């Protein structure tokens, strides 16, 4: 089922999430709905707070981006053995970030039409459970690591706009206000804060 994506200004996007406690059909159905919602919105990642659920759960598909790049572009965004992934992250925790950082543009389904430069670690180590609640501990690099960090931030109540310096925050303030008031159009259903 395609769910509405919560827009900037909704309080659920600013609340730290609680861990998922049960592996049941409700969680499995929610994960399926998240994948359907994300692909319908042409996204590459989606966190549970973006659909109004304050649980530590997000999904990432960097394989589609990898496959859409030319060979010479891939080496700029992916390490040699990384061909992207399609993965569900339950109760994730980033336990290490590299000192090597890089800046690239990021968008967010909760803030349509606003792409911003964000500096993030090139490499991370993350501990999580997959959709079958199998515990994993893995390293990721490049664009895959960036996507994971972006979605992980959502589970901590952090948005990519939080990384902007004060000048850039002033420059995007009116755009964010328009998003929060529901004055922007998107190609997918959205839920706006009722104030």
Number of domains: 1
Count of beta strands: 9
Within CATH, the superfamily carries the name Peptide deformylase
Helix proportion of residues, in percent?
Answer: 25-40%
Cα(first) to Cα(last) distance is: 27 Å
Strand order within the widest beta sheet: 2-3-4-7-8
Radius of gyration: 16 Å
Give the mean pLDDT.
96
Instruction: Just give the CATH class.
Output: Alpha Beta
Descriptive overview:
GO terms for molecular function: metal ion binding; peptide deformylase activity. InterPro entries: Peptide_deformylase, Peptide_deformylase_sf. Fe cation binds at residues 108, 150, 154. Its cofactor is Fe(2+). With 195 residues, the protein is an alpha+beta fold. It has a single domain, classed as Peptide Deformylase (Alpha-Beta Complex). It is 29% helix and 29% strand. The strands form three sheets. A five-stranded antiparallel sheet has the order 2-3-4-7-8, sandwiched between helices. It is globular and about 45 Å long.
């Amino acid at each position: 089922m395609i769910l509405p994506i919560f827009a900037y200004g909704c309080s659920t996007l600013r609340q730290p999430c609680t861990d998922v406690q049960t592996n049941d059909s409700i969680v499995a159905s929610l994960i399926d709905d998240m994948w359907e919602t994300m692909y319908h919105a042409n996204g590459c990642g989606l966190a549970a707070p973006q659909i109004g659920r304050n649980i530590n759960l997000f999904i990432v598909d960097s394989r589609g981006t990898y496959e859409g790049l030319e060979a010479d572009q891939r080496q700029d965004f992916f390490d040699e053995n990384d061909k992207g992934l399609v993965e569900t992250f339950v109760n994730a925790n980033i336990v290490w970030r590299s000192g090597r950082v890089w800046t690239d543009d990021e968008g967010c389904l909760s803030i349509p039409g606003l792409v911003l430069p964000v500096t993030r670690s090139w490499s991370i180590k993350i501990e999580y459970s997959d959709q079958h609640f199998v515990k994993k501990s893995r390293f990721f690099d490049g664009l895959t690591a960036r996507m994971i960090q972006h979605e992980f931030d959502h589970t901590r109540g952090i948005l990519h706009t939080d990384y902007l310096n004060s000048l850039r925050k002033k420059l995007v303030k009116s755009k964010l206000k328009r998003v929060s008031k529901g004055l922007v159009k998107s190609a997918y259903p959205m839920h706006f804060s009722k104030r």
